[in-house]
Amino acid sequence: MKLYVVKELEGFLPATLFQAMAQLGQECLIITEPKDTFLSLGYFDNLKYLIDIHECQKLKVPIMRRITGGGAVLLSKGQVFYQLVIDRHKAPFKVEEAYRKFSKPVIEVYRRLGLEVYYRPINDLVTKEGRKISGQGACDVGRMFVFVGNVLVNFDTHLMARLFRLPKEFVSFVEEALRENLTWLERELNRMVSFEEVASLLVEEFSKMLDLEGPYLLPEEALNLAQSIAQEQSSPECLFEDTGRKHELIKLREGVYLKLVDSGLLLIEDGLVKRSLSFEE
């Protein structure tokens, strides 16, 4: 299996390159990092109900829709992506079993960096305090199975809080909720962590599971296809597709949601209101 390690891919390529490889039927492991900041919608997200489009335009945060599910996420430098593309028959038949299997190398990377994390079904890695530190996704593309995720080295919770389609008076409340439920390596370890450090560990750990060769230069055919996919998945037709979702709840992590009600904003955890902020406060 070919290995590609690419620092700072431009534009939407960090989110479309694995899809191009899958469409081309190329088994590979890609490890990369975005050069630019952008918002990635989940496959079923309804943009107009979930995201403040004008705020994205004001802050120059472009938007695309990915082929995997999950919620809207802010992708940027400071996140190391791991993207596995394999023949479908080589992955466990049950999706949760696939998540468990392919999460193991990533969990070991965190451990070697000095942080214990755990798999939380179906697609999160969390610290012992329950904070999400890695979001993952998986899907079939033709005859290929893709498993993707990110090691959060750093994360801009303030920027993410501004992008939700919520009254701006709640930005601080949302940012606090994000910081309570998400975390990242530099925060947990209290030190700088480089792309090279994380990438080398990912290669070492995935090599215990996969017969990796390389790293290789990215094939031109895949880059061109990834650019084409990026254009399609950031087009108005794709972004504004009515998926049927109204987004009465905004998911922060598994079991934790924001809900806008007549009186204000609620933070809900495991079905119970943990905290609220009224419009008057």
From TrEMBL:
**Per UniProt, what is one GO molecular function of this protein?**
ligase activity
Keywords, ordered alphabetically = Ligase
Q: Which InterPro entries match?
A: aa-tRNA-synth_II/BPL/LPL (IPR045864), BPL_LPL_catalytic (IPR004143), Octanoyltrans_LipM/LipL (IPR050664)
| Any Pfam family the entry gives | LplA-B_cat
Domain BPL/LPL catalytic positions: 23-214
Note the PANTHER family from the entry: OCTANOYL-[GCVH]:PROTEIN N-OCTANOYLTRANSFERASE, OCTANOYLTRANSFERASE LIPM-RELATED
- Know the name of this protein? Lipoate-protein ligase A
Organism from which the protein derives: Thermocrinis minervae
